[in-house]
């Protein structure tokens, strides 16, 4: 009995060794692509597609998770094979979904997150491959920023106290004030920037308060124009394929099997699969074309590289004004770069789309009494201040207010 059990163990060992020795690429299940849009405008429909190569294996299941919570599984042996689970932000149309490809006719702010697709093969192999993608949900402001607290006339020395408020957006808008077309420096003591308020859920309203005493320098021909600008930066990061480099010819040089590469991700060029300590790695990372240009980062074994390893390269400029950013990586290989005889290189591209919306210019006038008298002193200014508030609103102000109203109502 004892030797029988021992023989079994030996046979198992031999079998295990054979399985390990077989070149993996020829038989194993592979993830080809996890396709999830990086940026989605709230309400848009999306496809979440997971494609794989079974090779010689049989499919057991395909599972989709958002932030580690399963919301869909496809098991050919089940009836029906495709099933969904309730999860915030997940809206699946099963009639249009098939196998690993899911159709969501709509999205909301809760749809944002990390999506993972996991494909498993049947017995006896039970292999699982997985890939992840991040999806961000953006919401553009529905209207231009508004200016609150305005008066038609200001006396010299009087406090101008205006609040700029953006329409709800995601992410929060960054606001700027301009006086007579000149931007007020972001750190100026004229500004007070409260934290953006989350309302409604998932959207943010930004405010920026501008306070300063009106002086003669602010008025040109008796008029001052103030304007507010809302800037929304919609950034997303794409990863390149990960390149695995070994320090020995015996170890297999393969790219990371589990995590697939991004279709529009940056590309790595010029490398070898094998380096010895003392050799120089000299590679380039090239982003796909965009406007504004992408920002690139290099990582060795998931750690961002030191700046002295980086070689800035001239970008590739296309006729339409779009650019492909190029960033070189050059360093001498040290043994510390290898973890278990492997060194992994990766590059990421961050693309940002900057949206700007500017308020209607608001024109205010100097108080009538002070127009001809350009050297009013502080005391004098205080005394005319109360009178200035009674001045009738100028035609120009009425016109710009009407224009704002018309624009608002048409939005
Ligand atoms: C995802 O799959 C569906 C159906 O299989 C297809 O119509 C759609 O074009 C695919 N989308 C992407 C981005 O691959
Ligand atoms: C500006 O106006 C707001 C109300 O609109 C008020 O709370 C604030 O105290 C004012 N600031 C100054 C400096 O007058
Ligand atoms: C990287 O790009 C530069 C030009 O931008 C080129 O001169 C260099 O040869 C490239 N290096 C590799 C390894 O491709
Ligand atoms: C590869 O690197 C590992 C870890 O630094 C080291 O133990 C191993 O001896 C190296 N192999 C060769 C062939 O240089």
Sum up the structure in keywords.
single chain; 9-stranded mixed β-sheet; 41% strand; disordered N terminus; binds 2-acetamido-2-deoxy-beta-D-glucopyranose; Ig-like_dom; Ig-like_dom_sf
Strand content: 35-45%
Give the biggest sheet: 9 strands, mixed
Bound molecules: 2-acetamido-2-deoxy-beta-D-glucopyranose
Helical region count?
Answer: 4
Broad structural category = mainly beta
Helix content: 10-25%
Indicate the low-confidence ranges by residue numbers. Answer: 1-6, 11-26, 250-261, 372-407
Mean pLDDT score: 80
Radius of gyration: 31 Å
State the separation between the terminal residues, measured CA to CA.
85 Å
| Overall number of strands | 28
Oligomer: single chain
Explain what this protein looks like in three dimensions.
Residues 23-130, 141-244, 266-358 form the Ig-like domain. This is Ig-like domain-containing protein. 12% of the residues lie in helices and 41% in strands. The protein has helices spanning 2-21, 24-27, 378-388, 395-410; strands at 30-35, 39-41, 46-53, 59-66, 69-74, 82-84, 102-104, 113-121, 128-138, 146-148, 153-154, 159-165, 174-179, 182-183, 191-192, 197-198, 204-205, 207-213, 223-239, 243-246, 267-269, 280-286, 295-300, 303-304, 310-317, 323-332, 342-358, 362-366. The strands form 6 sheets. Strands 11, 13, 14, 19, 20, 23, 24, 27 and 28 form a 9-stranded mixed beta sheet that branches. The protein has a 6-stranded mixed beta sheet with strand order 2-9-8-4-5-6, with no helix packed on it. The longest helix has 20 residues, at 2-21. The radius of gyration is 31 Å and the shape is flat. The structure holds 2-acetamido-2-deoxy-beta-D-glucopyranose (4 copies). One 2-acetamido-2-deoxy-beta-D-glucopyranose binds at residues 247-248, 335, 338, 341.
């Amino acid at each position: 009995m004892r030797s029988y059990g021992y023989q079994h163990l030996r046979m198992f060992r031999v079998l295990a060794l054979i399985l390990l020795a077989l070149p993996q690429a020829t038989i194993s299940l592979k993830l080809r692509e996890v396709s999830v849009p990086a940026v989605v405008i709230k309400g848009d429909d999306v496809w979440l597609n997971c494609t794989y190569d079974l090779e010689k294996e049989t499919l057991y299941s395909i599972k989709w998770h958002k932030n580690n919570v399963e919301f869909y599984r496809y098991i050919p042996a089940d009836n029906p094979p495709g099933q969904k689970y309730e999860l915030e932000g997940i809206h699946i149309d099963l009639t249009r979904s098939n196998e690993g490809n899911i159709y969501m006719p709509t999205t909301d702010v809760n749809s944002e997150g990390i999506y993972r697709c996991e494909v498993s093969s049947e017995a006896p192999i039970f292999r699982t491959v997985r890939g992840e993608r991040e999806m961000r949900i953006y919401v553009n402001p529905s209207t231009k920023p508004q200016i609150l607290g305005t008066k038609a006339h200001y006396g010299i020395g009087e406090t101008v106290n205006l609040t700029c408020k953006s329409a709800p957006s995601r992410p929060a808008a960054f606001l700027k004030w301009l006086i007579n077309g000149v931007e007020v420096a972001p750190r100026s003591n004229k500004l007070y920037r409260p934290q953006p308020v989350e309302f409604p859920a998932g959207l943010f309203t930004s405010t920026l308060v501008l306070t300063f005493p009106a002086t003669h320098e602010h008025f040109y021909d008796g008029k001052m124009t103030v304007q507010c600008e809302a800037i929304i930066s919609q950034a997303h990061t794409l990863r390149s394929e990960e390149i695995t480099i070994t320090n020995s010819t015996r170890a297999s040089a393969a790219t990371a099997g589990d995590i697939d590469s991004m279709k529009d991700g940056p590309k790595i060029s010029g490398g070898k699969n094998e380096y010895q300590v003392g050799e120089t790695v000299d590679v380039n990372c090239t982003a796909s074309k965009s406007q504004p240009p992408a920002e690139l980062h290099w990582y060795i074994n998931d750690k961002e590289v030191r700046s002295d390893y980086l070689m800035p390269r001239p970008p590739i400029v296309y006729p339409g004004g779009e650019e492909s950013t190029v960033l070189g990586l050059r360093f001498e290989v040290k043994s510390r770069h290898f973890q278990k005889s492997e060194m992994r290189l990766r590059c990421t591209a961050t693309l940002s789309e900057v949206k700007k919306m500017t308020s209607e210019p608001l024109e205010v006038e100097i108080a009538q009494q002070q127009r001809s008298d350009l050297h009013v002193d502080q005391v004098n200014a205080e005394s005319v201040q109360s009178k200035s508030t009674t001045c009738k609103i100028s035609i120009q102000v009425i016109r710009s207010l009407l224009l704002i109203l018309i624009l608002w109502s048409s939005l």
